[in-house]
Amino acid sequence: MNTSTHQRTLKNVIRATGVGLHSGAEIMLTLRPAPPDHGIVFVRTDLEPAVCLPACIDRLGGTHLSTALSDGQATVGTVEHLMAAFCGLGIDNVRVEVDAAELPIMDGSASPFVFLLQAAGIATQPAPRRFLRILEPVTFVDGPTRATLEPWDGMRVEYTLEYDHPGFRGQRRTAAVDVDRTRFVREIARARTFGFLSDRDRMKGMNAARPGGTPGAVRDNVVVLDECAVSNGQGLRFADEFVMHRILDAIGDLYLLGHPIIGAFRGFRSGHGTNAGLLRALMAERAAWELVTFETPADLPGALGRAIPEIA
Ligand SMILES: [Zn+2]
Predict the structure, then answer these.
(1) In the chain, helix, strand, coil percent, each to 5?
(2) Short-list 264, 65, 267, CA closest to 162
(3) Rounded to 5 degrees, what are φ and ψ at 182?
(4) What is the CA radius of gyration of the chain?
(5) How far is the CA of 135 from the centre of ligand 1 (A)?
(6) 3-class DSSP state for residue 191?
(7) Which residues form the catalytic set?
């Protein structure tokens, strides 16, 4: 069994608490190992009875500012950074228990989740991992935003930001990453959420503590842009943090396909709504994709076939 060609889960149960971005409430998160072919399943343990929400396109709920899963009654929001951590570390099967309608925002990046998963330990399972290989280009356009999936020898994620905001001066607006575990942990996972300080907030004298009026957003977990510059008081973690965060979001959203992709994603100003539209368009185009397995790492295409050091 190989860590790239076979499914993986956690070795141990692990827990964390944090604050919800939208509710401001303290949230308990418990991650449990799960059997092969279980997938990533979110469980609302605060509801009676508990409600299971598999991380898949059929359960895609709201996509305003974050990605939510919903069955029409129960919802769990802000799943994209944890989903990105699962994808980036090559983890297929986890039961994610949460006692609120959203995941904790942590520091606004996927880094605390990566740390948590590595602390739990990662176990390789006997079942082969199924990859979703893109066979034909599929594009989804929504107003000025656009997202495309197309064939590629490996997994590539490319993103272009376009904001008039002065806070983006000097920022690199386009980035492309051939995603493997090392690059995910070093270059993508640490990029934090960013938000704008709206005029409404300024008039209310809310200052930068609560951008957009979201109760859980403080300067520790959201890079806040006001009219002159980046104003989180600490500066950026790296020069292209904003565009890298959009790449992180896209990786998390793409993992709602239930499989790592073999293909290239290109996003132009696309947010969670455009990403969701692209995933639905891909599923509707049955000739555009196939599920594949690989016997040995040598059979994996492109960067996916490179020897991957086990970071966990
Ligand atoms: Zn995000």
Answers:
(1) 25, 30, 40
(2) 267
(3) -65, -50
(4) 19
(5) 28
(6) coil
(7) 272
Torsions phi, psi of 113, nearest 5? -70, -40
Residue-level pLDDT at 281: 98
**39 CA to middle of ligand 1, Å?**
22
Do the Cβ atoms of 14 and 113 come closer than 8 Å? no
Query: How far, in Å, is the centroid of ligand 1 from the Cα of 126?
Result: 32
Contact 145, 268 (CB under 8 A): yes
| Per-residue model confidence as pLDDT tens digits over 114-132 | 999 999 999 999 999 999 9
The closest alpha carbon to 82, from 74, 94, 70, belongs to 94
Helix, strand or coil, per DSSP, at residue 76: strand
How far from each other are the two terminal CA atoms of the chain, in whole angstroms?
17
Cα–Cα distance for residue pair 188/246, rounded to 1 Å: 9
CB atoms within 10 A of CB 284: 9
User: pLDDT digit string (tens) for 33-43?
Assistant: 999 999 999 99
Dist. CA 278 → ligand 1 center (Å): 17
CA of 157 to the centre of ligand 1 (A): 15
pLDDT (tens digit per residue) in 135-162:
999 999 999 999 999 999 999 999 998 8
What is the rounded distance in angstroms from the CA atom of residue 305 to the CA atom of residue 55? Answer: 26
